[in-house]
Amino acid sequence: MNAQTLSRREFLGGSDAPAVLGVSQWQTAVDLWREKTGRKVEEPDPDLQRRLRRGQKLEPFIREMTVEKLRDLGHDVELLACNERYRDQQHPFLSVEIDFELRVDGEHCNGDAKSVGGQARAKWGQEGTDQISIDYAAQFMDGLMVTGRRRCLAAALRSFDDVDLYWIERDEETISAMREKLVSFWVDHVQRDVPPDPVKFADVRDLFPQESAPRIEATDEVLAMVEELRQIGQRTKALEQREDYLRFYLAKFMGPHAVLTNGPRDVLSWQTEERAHFDLKRFKAEHPDWYALYASTQRTRVLRQAKSRAARSR
């Protein structure tokens, strides 16, 4: 099936599974629901698009290195397909695109190419195991669920000298639980247009972007939380004041010196750094037409401690 014939709003893909299961570092179930129901329409992120294009360009390179490495390890390997899309036989809205498919020692396996850099390297464990980040594990298990295959080979490019290979085995208990959650998300939330439960403050703000009722009476539990929030605010303010004082005292003590030492150890530095600063106020005054062209107004709800009604009436 050609991947280009489907809009991402028409199905739940492998990259959607971590959000539904609550293990995605990028997206919550509410984020995904808003995307699938057309409520979330964002301008393309140039940096994200550039990373995606780079990943797509690296896929053939990773695939070739994977085949070579498997053969060097003594396996009989045949490349069967690239970027094929599959639908679940029972629930066609469950659909996955498999980066590449291999026949390894006679077994048809899913393959997934990942370029891994920076801090992400730490999330991948020892090569040859299934020690990968849980969001990728959910994605690969979703692919095994839809295709019905037993194993997925994840090829992680962590340098241009080699790829690390990880084998993810099909687990029926995990797949059964995943299938139930994925089907429920699509049927109970996307098709019925009912949002899933929020899990963070941004979810609540996205679900209720504007106030539509004036007041709601607090319960005892909610009042206790309001008081706790007020106390945290006071402690935070006190800590900020203490931080300002410590910075003042230490800077005064150091005076013209660049580094504060404790014997052979450096404990604090106070050195000159250059930072670029855009003078928005001046730009607005000197180029009002350009400022108006790029200026935009954003509306968002802000949660604040309220003044008493008596104080507001004064």
Your description of this structure?
The protein is of the alpha+beta class and 314 residues long. It has two domains: 3-205, Lambda Exonuclease, Chain A, CATH 3.90.320.10; 219-263. Helix content is 43%, strand content 18%. It is built from ten helices and seven strands. Strands 1-2-3-4-5 form a five-stranded mixed sheet, with helices on both faces. The chain has a two-stranded antiparallel sheet with strand order 6-7. A hairpin with a 2-residue loop joins strand 2 and strand 3 (107-115). Helix 4 (134-147) crosses helix 5. It is extended and about 70 Å long. It starts with 16 loop residues before the first helix and ends with a helix. 19% of the residues are buried.
Short description:
43% of the residues lie in helices and 18% in strands. With 314 residues, it is α+β, with helices and mostly antiparallel strands.
Q: Helix tally? A: 10
Strand content: 15-25%
State the end-to-end CA separation. Answer: 69 Å
The ordered string of helix (H) and strand (E) elements is HHHEEEHEEHHHEEHHH
Going by helix content, strand content and strand pairing, the class is alpha+beta
CATH class of the largest domain: Alpha Beta
- What is the topology, as strand order, of the major beta sheet? 1-2-3-4-5
Q: Detail the poorly predicted runs.
A: none
Shape: extended
CATH topology of the largest domain: Lambda Exonuclease, Chain A
Give the % helix: 40-55%
Describe the main β-sheet briefly: 5 strands, mixed
Could you report the average pLDDT, rounded to the nearest whole number?
89
Overall tally of structural domains: 2
CATH architecture descriptor name of the largest domain: Alpha-Beta Complex
- What integer value in Å does the Rg equal? 27 Å
Number of strands: 7
